[in-house]
Every structure is written in C-alpha cells, then in structure tokens.
What does this fold into?
Amino acid sequence: MSTTGPIKQARKSLLWLGVIFLVSALVLIGGVIGKQTTFAPKLALDLEGGTQMILAPRVAGGAAATQEQLDQAVEIIRQRVDGSGVSEAEITTQSGRNVVVSMPGVPDARTRQLIQASANMEFRPVIIDGAYTATPKDQLTPEAEIPKPTEAPKNASDTNWITPELYKEFEAFDCPSEEGKGADTVHDPAKPMVSCDPSMGAKYILGPVEVPGANIADASATMGRSQQGAVTGQWVVNLVFNDEGKKQFATVTQRLVGMPGVQNQFAIVLDGTVISAPRTNSVIGDGRAEISGNFTEESAKALADQLKFGALPISFEIQSEQQISATLGADQLKSGLIAGLIGLILVGIYSIFQYRLLGIVTIVSLLASGVLTYLALVLLGWSMNYRLSLAGVAGLIVAIGLIADSFIVYFERIRDELRDGRPLASAVEMGWKRAKRTILAAKAVNILAAVVLYVVAVGNVRGFAFTLGLTAIIDIIIVYLFTHPIMQLLAKTKFFGEGHRFSGLDPSLLGVKPLYQGAGKVRSFSPEADVARGKKNASAAKEAERRQTIAERRQSAAQGVDTKHDDSVDKDSSNG
It folds into this structure.
C-alpha cells in the first residue's frame, strides 16, 4: 500500500489547521490593537455583573397592563435583546406590574431603544413630504392656498385626507424637537398622521394604516443580489409577511407602483417615527419584499431587528436603572476552571496509562481543541456579543470527556486492525474509515441535542447548550485536521511503526482490551472473554485449574468443561 498519498494528505490537513489558527489569532490581535476587543472572553451576568432596568408599562387609554400582556412583552423583549447580540440576559415580570431586564455590561443606545420601543409598528402610505424642521412663520402657506378636501378619500394615498388643520400641523411640526416623543402619542390607525424620518431628514403626511406590524413574519439583513443571482455588494433588508399581510401588501403595492412622486412610497412607522420610507418598484404578491438603499451592515441589521421584533403589545418607560454585581463571581469561575483542569489531568493520566506515548496524541489534541475553543469564544464575544456564563463553563467541562471519547474510538479501531495482522500504516487508514463513522454519528447526536436544548431553553441553559454544540464542531475539526494526520505521520516512524513497548502499540498488549473502548462500549466480563485475554490471562487460568480440588474438577467436567489434563492428575493420584 503506497504511503505517499496519506502523508501528503496529512501535511495538507495540518497546514489547513495552521491557517485556521493563524487567521483567528491575527484577527483577534488586530481587534485588540484597535481596542475593539480584549484577549479575554466576555462574561455573562452571573460572572461579571451588569445593568438592571425596571420597565413600567404604558397602555393606550391609561388602562393597567394585564398579566398576559406582560408575559407577551417579556418574550418579545427577550427576542429583541437576544437579537441585538446581548446573550444571557434575564427578563422577568415583577409583582405583575413591571418588567425587569437584567443584562451583562452596560446596554448601548440601540439596545435601550429596542427594549423601550412599543408594538406600534405600522405601514402607512406617504401622501406628501416637506422640510424636516418647522416652517418659519413668515413662510407659512396662506390660508387660501392650503389644500382642502374636495371629496371623500378613495384610498389611503388620497390627498383628500389633508385637511387645513392637518396641513398646519405638518408645517409647524419640528422634527428635531419631537424626536423620541412619538411613543407618547396615540395615533388613530384609521386616520392620517404627521411623522418624521430622522435618518433621511424628511417629514411626511402619512395616510391611514394599511398593513399592521403584527403581520410581519420575519425580517433579515443580507447582501443584495442582481436578477442574475450575483452579489451586488449592497446591504438590503428582506421582509416576509404572514398570509394576511401578504394579501394586504399586494393590494398596497398594486396601487403605489403607479403613483407619482412621493406617493409611490410607503412608510414603516415605529412608535410614531418613520424608520424607513422605501419606494415601490413593483407589485409584490408573494409577501416577500426587499428594502434597498444606502444601507451599511449595521443600519440594515438595525432595521431588520426593528421590523422583526416590532410587535410589542405595550410600550415601556425605564422607571429605574442600576448596576448590579455578579451573582456568582470570580470564586465560582475559578472553581469551574479548576474542575475543568482536574478533568483534563485525569483524562491525560488515563490516556498515558492505557496508550503509553500514544496518549500524548490525545493530550495534544485536547490542548488544540482548547485553544481553538478559546479563540472562538473571544471572537464570538467580539462579533456577536456572546458572553460566557457558568453554565457555559459547565458545557466546556463536559466537552472534555466527549472530545476524548473520539480519540479513544479512533485508537481502538487502529488496534483492532493491528490484531487482524495489518501493518500500522494500513491499520491507521482502515481504522480511520471505521472510526470516523462512529465519531460523526456521536457528534451529530451531540450537536442535535445542543440545538434542541438551545431552542427550547431560556437563560443560562442556552449557554450550556451553545458551548456543548460549539465544542462538538471543534472536536470534528481537530480529529479530521490534527489527530488523524498526526497518526498518519507517526505510522511512518520506527518507534510507533515497529510497536515499541512504550508506543502503546506493543504487540504483547494488543490481546488485552481496555475496560473502556469509547462511544460507551465497555469490555465484556464473560469467562470466555477472560480466557482469550492474552498470555497473562491464560497463565492465570492454568494456575487456577491447578489449584482446584478433585471435587471442583469433577464438577467442571460435569458442566462440560474440558478437563483432560485434570483427569490424568486424578488417575495418578488414585494410583498413588
């Protein structure tokens, strides 16, 4: 069997792993130099402390918020907070009156806005636009020139909605001074309103609501594509409506696509403020719209978050805010890390005891997994604001045993091939073909369990699920790009290839199966297995037979055991 191919493939795999480590390290160092991150992973609320905000609900008409409304608000606020990248936040109700939001660190302005924003998400058509600031008194439109309704409005875009009173309000409306006050005003969805778009510096008179925000099924920010499918390099927001919204939006776009000027636009209004007012380029009948413009990645994701999580049934006011200390602190984190270190040491001791110097491959593979996991946690903390909780640390500790299990499975498959008489180089390749199926099946179960747990759980349990799934993926990377390639290279060395007694591949040890063989498989303890357990076990069996009494040997013969040797001893004894 030619070894040129495996050796070349092994070096290529190790090179790819080196590239992954190098790129990750360089990205992290660049972030630290740019003061955008640190070398330490971000810690969650239970380990670092953070901010606690008590939110007081505000319901239209002054009515008290019901428990059902508060429970719905908790779920939507949790989605908003998680959607903004803040993980491990705790969101609960307090005494059936308020909502308490506790999150690690100090929330930025965008997160605060998402928490406070109400469910008053609406789609209204644009009727007219104007200057962003209030019109100076000497430039106000004369009374005689103010447009007046001539007949009843035919649709939401009809200019007959504009009364002299509404037009005066529009001219006097000063957007900078009114910014942030939109949630304080209740707007009748069946009537027009005045609103502003701070991002575009525009002011509008908007028609009645045609599509409520509750009919949005999903929203996401992605890179736009041309009709031919090529990436345009421009960020867009993809919008998906539910069945009812699909019908409503189809009706709206069918009318707006033929409207002139600003009346071709529809405004997305959140808390009385226009967050986007895109033009209508075509009739959209499938309920899937694309909002394009001069978006950056940040602004596209911010708009997608507002659209996706804009269905809050009530609005909130921050009643109080305070900094809170870590609930567990550094001592518990230190204890968790010590527990992980002890587990790592025990796995290392077992590996050396069972596999001699071959166990060093297990130890180095575990260290490589640890370094890659550390880099992943820090980079995820920087890019996605992922925070490591004590439950996440527990997931990392559990992963030590699960990762080591993969190496045990692989080594035992190699030993099985050696028992069948294959040379080491061939045993490594054949053992890998058998082992990788078992490893992939086991890791698929781990990842599936982690995904399900992450989806159905809340709070710290999700942190455990996340690290469990992350380490399972990293385990696959290490086994494929490090452990197997290293074994391919070691198979060509004299020390391992000839089965040195310290290599772990000593032929005299191959007849002895370990107590644990990986993937939950444990050695059998049947008498038949004991007899076949190598020279040492066979010698022990003969010694046990020699020490049997005559009655014991006769009982063994009655049970069908071969006692030819013992019978001869009996005859000698009787003759004597």
